[in-house]
Design goal:
- This protein is an alpha+beta fold.
- The protein has 20 helices and 10 strands.
- The longest helix is centred in the N-terminal third of the chain and has 24 residues, at 132-155.
- It starts with 20 loop residues before the first helix and ends with a strand.
- Mean pLDDT is 89; it is low at 401-413.
Length: 508
């Protein structure tokens, strides 16, 4: 195979001295940090089919390489060593290794670190987090968090049964309460209005997530002087650390870590779980609710599954969740279309050939999962929300096109054959399903939780949180969206810009 020099890889041309950093500093399209999704599409067009593009000469950062090919992504992931290197979040690294070094010491945690320190810490906590039985054991606790949040949703509806404009903040509260329940073994009180400590936690969450893009995606002015965003960031991290020290109990996942490796390791783990397990899960919930609310066919099909398997009078268990394959497919499809993180990265530790180009050691490889999972090559009609892509059963069997459902009440088939529009929708969606079946699903085309040893260590817990909330929400309500299409920004989580004013209609 003929290889080409790295300098020949397409990408924006750097200026002398300024490199390419000036593009993000000026912030003109397509180089706005809040709209990195558009930046990725621009780079894909430069790369061409199955190619790669680069953004070189960035102040304080290694050269970035973007391979727009699932096969290439698979090759890179599979060749990495046992201690894969990710790009470090400079401000978080500064907090852990400089500003609060007296606390963290030789225990840097899982976030913002790599190499042997990361590997040692991961070996201490992975069994308690990654084992399937750990997340399954947390389901009863998470059930009550979801139950309380559903009650809160009912209480905050307006006279038109619309959720408030700040519903995304409410989802942050739910996600934070969930992490506290399974990780710290305690209820934090985030779903209550009169809990002062909980309100301070929410304030810190707001401050932290709003300061991250200013610190990690923009010019690092905080290295020169303590900017407002930097002060907010540090104060928020200090608040989280104090919370974890204060609220660590003898229950929850972190309690097991404390017993075997001490309270300090358990506290650091809890801090990292708060940093990565709140905004991501809230964003995933927001996008899934939106896509279900705007796709009546899918929502009805999901409710048929929920009606057939859930009992409103009893606590949900992991066995109940096992009976909801269509719900899991709805979440997978939502994370395909709107992944909470646009891409994952690796810093290669040796020279490599990527997409036919010689890429030097130290380059940062960015896997643009958002682009691949919305690429026609891998997902026919990628803009269409079709959960059936992820289910192996026959399409008509999944959707009950010719069947009636008997679950203690008379129910219409999902599709009324006398309704021409629904019949047309059925044919259109079935055609997409058939094309997907012919293409297959590339295992590296949609990786919302990453891959390998550095994939999301709390993946199973996040999935359980989402399944419980969505099951309860769509079992109790039909959800409507009465506004225009949502737009998204990178903060660095991929979140909606507009207020999430869903309408909730009680189901019989």
């Amino acid at each position: 195979m003929n290889t080409r020099r790295f300098t020949m890889m397409p990408g924006p041309r750097p200026l002398p001295i300024l490199g390419n950093s000036w593009r993000f500093a000026v912030g003109q399209k397509p180089w706005e940090t809040l709209n990195l999704d558009k930046t990725l599409w621009y780079l894909k067009n430069l790369a061409g089919s199955c190619g790669a593009a680069k953004v070189a000469k960035l102040f304080g950062h290694p050269d970035l390489v973007f391979p727009f090919c699932a096969d290439e992504t698979a090759r890179i992931y599979r060749r990495e060593d046992t201690m894969p290197h990710r790009a470090v979040a400079p401000c978080l690294k500064h907090y852990k290794q400089v500003l609060r070094k007296e606390f963290f010491g030789e225990e840097p945690g899982l976030i913002g670190v790599h190499g042997m320190p990361w590997s040692r810490f991961r070996s201490k906590v992975s069994k308690a987090l990654a084992a399937p039985e750990a997340a399954r054991a947390a389901v009863p606790t998470l059930h009550y968090v979801a139950e309380d949040f559903i009650c809160r949703m009912e209480n905050i509806l307006d006279e038109n049964r619309e959720l408030p404009k700040d519903f995304l903040t409410e989802l942050y509260k739910w996600a934070l309460e969930s992490v506290g329940a399974w990780a710290l073994g305690t209820r934090l009180g985030c779903l209550q209005d009169n809990d002062t400590e909980a309100q301070n936690i929410i304030k810190s969450i707001h401050g932290f997530f709003h300061s991250v893009p200013k610190l990690e995606l923009s010019a690092p002015l905080w290295r020169l002087y303590p900017t407002t965003a930097y002060k907010t960031y540090i104060n928020s991290l200090d608040s989280f650390r104090s919370l974890c020290l204060k609220r660590l109990t003898d229950k929850g996942v972190c309690a097991h870590i404390a017993q075997s490796h001490g309270r300090k390791v358990a506290t650091i783990l809890a801090l990292d779980l708060l940093l990565v397990g709140v905004d991501t899960t809230a964003a995933a919930a927001a996008s899934t609710i939106y896509l279900l609310a705007t796709n009546e066919r899918v929502q009805k099909r999901l409710q048929i599954e929920l009606d057939a398997n859930l009992n409103t009078d009893k606590e949900m268990t992991c066995k109940d969740l096992d009976q909801l394959p269509y719900l899991r497919a709805c979440i997978k499809e939502a994370l395909r279309i709107k992944p909470v993180i646009l891409g994952n990265g690796r810093c290669i530790q040796s020279d490599a050939i990527i997409s036919g180009y010689e890429v030097p050691k130290g380059s940062h490889i960015v896997f643009p999962h958002y682009i691949l999972s919305n690429d026609e090559r891998y997902f026919p009609s990628p803009q269409e929300y079709v959960p059936e892509r992820w289910i192996r059963e026959d399409f008509d069997k999944i959707n009950g096109y010719t069947e009636k459902y008997d679950i203690g009440m008379k129910r219409e088939s999902l599709y009324n054959t006398g309704d021409m529009k629904q019949g047309s929708d059925h044919c259109r969606v079935k055609s997409i399903w058939q094309k997907q079946k012919e293409v297959g699903i590339h295992p590296f085309a949609s990786l919302p939780f990453g891959f390998g040893r550095r994939m999301c260590i709390g993946k199973r817990f996040a999935e359980a949180e989402l399944q419980l909330l969505l099951a309860k929400m769509f079992h109790k309500y039909s959800v409507r969206w009465r506004y225009g299409e949502l737009t998204y920004s990178v903060t660095p989580t991929y979140i909606p810009n507009e207020p999430l004013q869903f309408t909730l209609i009680r189901r019989q």
